[in-house]
């Protein structure tokens, strides 16, 4: 697939290089030639130009891109102008880094549906990890209030049925799946752990040692699990 990443700061560069590593064609754009020079050997191409200039923006292969990322982290005005021009040019898919609540409100008002907020995402993940400690495995924000969590099954859950535990009633979270480990030997005889997903959740299913529970709910109810 083909991607355009506008803004080659820390986030933009990381996105561009990560997409390239998994086999995509990526063009990076930044007004600062030092930033484009820094990635010219790690992504497909890098171009230095002013994305608030419509004529300059039109020189890019916008319609060939499967998605365009706008990742400016501080320059509110440059981000808004760039996004407005891209929307006016009717690009395929636009993903924009949110800088502040006001910035997010403005870009939503001009039709941007996909907004990424790495600082908020990291803060949510760190807060969850701090609260749950060694139980915490993974976190994913679904909305501003609701999240998906992957946690190690607490010792007190092991051997109990889901009906007995009643996560929704007792802890305010909904179980959407279980990852269950199975140790196997690979082709050269070394042991390795593979996980299978159980997505058919029934009340008589018992939690086993090593299970990872995939939960959906609000962050503020996690303290109930942390206190087990």
Automatic annotation (TrEMBL):
One of its GO terms (molecular function) is monoatomic cation transmembrane transporter activity. This is Potassium transporter. Residues 149-227 form the RCK C-terminal domain. Signal peptide: none annotated. PANTHER family: KTR SYSTEM POTASSIUM UPTAKE PROTEIN C, POTASSIUM CHANNEL PROTEIN 2-RELATED-RELATED. InterPro entries: NAD(P)-bd_dom_sf, RCK_C, RCK_C_sf, RCK_N, Trk_Ktr_HKT_K-transport. GO terms for biological process: potassium ion transport. Residues 3-118 form the RCK N-terminal domain.
